[in-house]
């Protein structure tokens, strides 16, 4: 797969906090050199096409993907005229769908340890919990949406902690992480806009492993680490503009990233990262970076990138 990287275009998300640390060509070249010196995994990206309901049906932009149980794949897309949540099997057959009229800007979909489905809507700052069959189980209205030049936007992603604790990256215009309990009651929050420890410029993705919270501080070009109380543990500044992050079954991390000075969501890399050191363990090239889910050792699921409708990507060892 050939990437279009690098595209030296200084581009940022409309309405995000203005970057006080502007990206540079040197930074992009350093990231490229790091990736290219790391093991390129002998994998291929296999598109999994969704068997559409009709010839007119389409997903529009697929914002997020998640691997469910029994080989099912869940995806969240932005064709608001259709059900926003779509579930397919390993051959792309559409098993069920729901959510028409429930979203404004569908952003993230995640599976919790019990197999429930969680969605995050950045346009309304509403987080929803569903059963795998689509029954609504919980609604969290995060609220506190600041207005921007192109309207209000808020929450971006969610991760799951012990005892049903929920951690939400509230990244668009709000620069914070929120904790809720299993009943949907807010417990605490931390973060302000900026570049210092515990500050953010669009916390876009969030993951949790062994008591450590990893936050993709996207426009600052770093991943920050916190304990379960929000105490700052450090950051990694060498991994580029990280859009997505997930904890893999083997305990390490996968991220979707590219350099900060290219247009948002240009093709880049899915990168396997040691969760303790931040070292790069391997990478694959990918057109989709907005969402990544590590299914099992040797398989990673991602969105297909902008302009690619009705499909998701499975990254697997080449035969």
Structure report:
With 319 residues, the chain is mainly beta. The protein has a single domain (25-317), classed as TolB, C-terminal domain (Neuraminidase). 4% of the residues lie in helices and 43% in strands. The chain has a four-stranded antiparallel sheet, with no helix packed on it. Strand 17 (212-217) and strand 18 form a beta hairpin. The radius of gyration is 18 Å and the shape is globular. The two termini are 15 Å apart. Residues 1-18 have low confidence and may be disordered.
Number of domains: 1
Task: Characterize the largest beta sheet: strand count, sense, and whether it forms a barrel.
Answer: 4 strands, antiparallel
The CATH topology annotation reads as Neuraminidase
- For the record, give the distance between the C-alpha atoms at the N and C termini, rounded to a whole number: 15 Å
**Sheet with the most strands: spatial strand order:** 1-26-25-24
Identify the CATH architecture: 6 Propeller
Residue fraction in strands: 35-45%
* Broad structural category: mainly beta
The arrangement of helices and strands along the chain is HEEEEEEEEEEEEEEEEEEEEEEEEEE
Q: What multimeric state do the chains show?
A: single chain
CATH superfamily grouping: TolB, C-terminal domain
> What is the averaged pLDDT score?
91
